[in-house]
């Protein structure tokens, strides 16, 4: 390409540098977001942690009383006793929690008050659903960068407010506020970094950050909690750390693709000029003029008013959107259920959480080694079908073994967690690449919000074990296999020109076959041709 010929955003990005100093800065900042997101999301797990406890019996004759969790047995003689409700408080066994004091323990939210921390968790989830929708729509109207900062400030306010909670009402309200930030505080930076990286380096850059920084952060959360000793100090640290995102305004650019899709070409040019300056390059006036011409020819003003519902108006886009939503539901539901199953192994929650979080790094390294060779479609479908098969096998094992060893259950759970981590993390990038730029913010939000909504059923699925022990593993396995089949109907995005407008999205992968993979020469080249032709017709 001549050094002044710019036929699109990708050409301009290559011109100013698509994997140089500026991209490394963005990757470092994305690593910061990974750390903040991990502590924000999983900090609540240890805030509401319930240690082992028994009714306090110090006011009674120890020889005549037996302490239970929510009551005491008072022996009147050797054969007769009365059971009374616990009214003297509780004693907590912190050996399994390594001396850490949770909000549940401090406020004695156990027994008749055990619904209070559960309410906070539920309201946090409600906040993530509402916040995801509102902030997603906002991202396509005011920009990715503004919403990234807003979401992290919501996380700051929500976690800070939680430290002031002394009753169920204030706790629920503060957790709702914190929940509003969830996922958006991560996804917006994910989108920005992805759009400014060389396509061949996207998988490497994003998965290294997630695999190293998110994994290490998740593994660190329980031990930071142990180090600080109590839930208030933990949340003060978590909330205060989010203030660093305010500095992102000085460094992080707005999405150039979004700016151009909104007709704000001059602002996009400013972003590219900043990147060029930091990367030690100079943009010639002719290249800038080429970008202006591209914007005029290819971006119609009507795209400024497009929204998520535009994805449902044409058959190809509608099919892909519905599949992405279903896949998100399967991934999020299975991820949540498998995580909860790990926590029910009877071992220390701190140790189990650390071990399960350690699977994130090998999952991301596997994605890094494989995804750009086999393609998004093959990895998404393959990882789900393998995870589903292993889960069904675990269910069959439980059906024929009456009392399986806890260690064996933990191994099965860890393997299942590894598989779902691969599917979840690879699926995230796949969805972002498939959705057109003009509605990407709100579309990604809707896909993730519906996925979060599906987690409502994870507890019910796990409860089915009360009736037949293997049922959760078998149901989750079949769900993952169904998700794998659904992925076969999505087009490959590896080495393709990604859609910007809804017209691009409708044409993308229109003629690709179900069993066509990048691994076997798939990834329909016709899709790229159609995108360029449609762009010239606008």
From TrEMBL:
It is a multi-pass membrane protein. It is found in: Membrane. Gene3D superfamilies: MFS general substrate transporter like domains. Keywords: Membrane, Transmembrane, Transmembrane helix. The chain crosses the membrane at residues 22-42, 118-138, 145-164, 176-197, 204-228, 234-252, 321-338, 350-370, 382-400, 406-424, 445-468, 474-491. It comes from the Eukaryota. InterPro entries: MFS_dom (IPR020846), MFS_sugar_transport-like (IPR005828), MFS_trans_sf (IPR036259). The keyword Transmembrane helix applies. Pfam families: Sugar_tr. Residues 64-495 form the Major facilitator superfamily (MFS) profile domain. The keyword Disulfide bond does not apply. One of its GO terms (cellular component) is membrane. GO terms for molecular function: transmembrane transporter activity. This is Major facilitator superfamily (MFS) profile domain-containing protein. It comes from Dendroctonus ponderosae (Mountain pine beetle).
């Amino acid at each position: 390409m001549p050094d002044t010929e710019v036929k699109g955003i990708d050409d301009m990005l290559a011109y100013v540098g698509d994997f140089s100093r500026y991209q490394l800065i963005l990757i470092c900042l994305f690593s910061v977001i990974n750390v903040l997101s991990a502590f924000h999301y999983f900090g609540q797990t240890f805030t509401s942690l319930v240690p082992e406890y028994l009714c306090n019996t110090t006011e009674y004759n120890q020889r005549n009383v037996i302490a239970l969790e929510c009551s005491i047995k008072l022996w009147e003689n050797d054969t007769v006793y009365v059971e009374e409700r616990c009214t003297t408080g509780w004693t907590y066994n912190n050996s399994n929690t390594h001396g850490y004091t949770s909000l549940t323990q401090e406020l004695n939210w156990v027994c008749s008050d055990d619904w209070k921390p559960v309410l906070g968790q539920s309201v946090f989830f409600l906040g993530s659903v509402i916040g995801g929708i509102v902030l997603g729509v906002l991202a396509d109207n005011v920009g990715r960068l503004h919403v990234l900062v807003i979401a992290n400030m919501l996380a700051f306010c929500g976690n800070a407010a939680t430290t002031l909670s002394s009753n169920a009402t204030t706790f629920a309200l503060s957790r709702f506020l914190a929940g509003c930030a969830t996922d958006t505080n991560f996804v917006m930076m994910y989108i920005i970094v992805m759009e400014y990286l060389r396509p061949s380096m996207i998988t490497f850059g994003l998965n290294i950050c997630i695999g190293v920084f998110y994994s290490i952060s998740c593994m660190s959360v329980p031990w930071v909690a142990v180090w600080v000793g109590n839930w208030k100090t933990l949340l003060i640290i978590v909330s205060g750390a989010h203030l660093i995102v305010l500095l992102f305004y000085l460094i992080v650019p707005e999405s150039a693709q979004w700016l151009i899709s909104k007709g704000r070409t001059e602002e996009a040019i400013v972003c590219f000029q900043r990147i060029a300056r930091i990367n030690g390059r100079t943009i010639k006036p002719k290249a800038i003029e080429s970008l202006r011409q591209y914007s005029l020819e290819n971006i119609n003003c009507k795209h400024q008013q497009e929204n998520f519902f535009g994805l449902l108006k044409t058959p190809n886009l509608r099919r892909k959107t519905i599949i992405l939503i279903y896949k998100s539901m399967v991934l999020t539901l299975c991820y949540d259920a498998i995580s909860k199953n790990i926590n029910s192994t009877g071992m220390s929650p701190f140790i189990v959480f650390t071990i399960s979080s350690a699977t994130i790094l090998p999952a991301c390294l596997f994605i890094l080694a494989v995804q750009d060779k086999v393609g998004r479609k093959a990895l998404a479908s393959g990882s789900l079908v393998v995870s589903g098969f292993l889960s069904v096998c675990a269910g069959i094992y439980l059906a024929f073994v009456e009392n399986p060893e806890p260690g064996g259950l933990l191994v099965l759970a860890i393997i299942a967690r590894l598989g779902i981590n691969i599917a979840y993390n690879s699926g995230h990038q796949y969805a972002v690449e498939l959705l057109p730029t003009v509605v990407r913010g709100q579309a990604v939000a809707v896909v993730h919000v519906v996925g979060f909504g599906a987690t409502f059923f994870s507890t019910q699925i796990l409860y089915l074990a009360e009736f037949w022990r293997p049922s959760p593993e078998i149901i989750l396995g079949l769900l993952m296999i169904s998700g794998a089949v659904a992925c076969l109907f999505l087009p490959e995005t590896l080495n393709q020109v990604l859609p910007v407008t809804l017209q691009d999205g409708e044409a993308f992968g229109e003629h690709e076959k179900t069993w066509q993979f990048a691994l076997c020469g798939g990834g329909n080249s016709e899709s790229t041709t159609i995108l360029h032709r449609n762009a010239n017709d606008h």
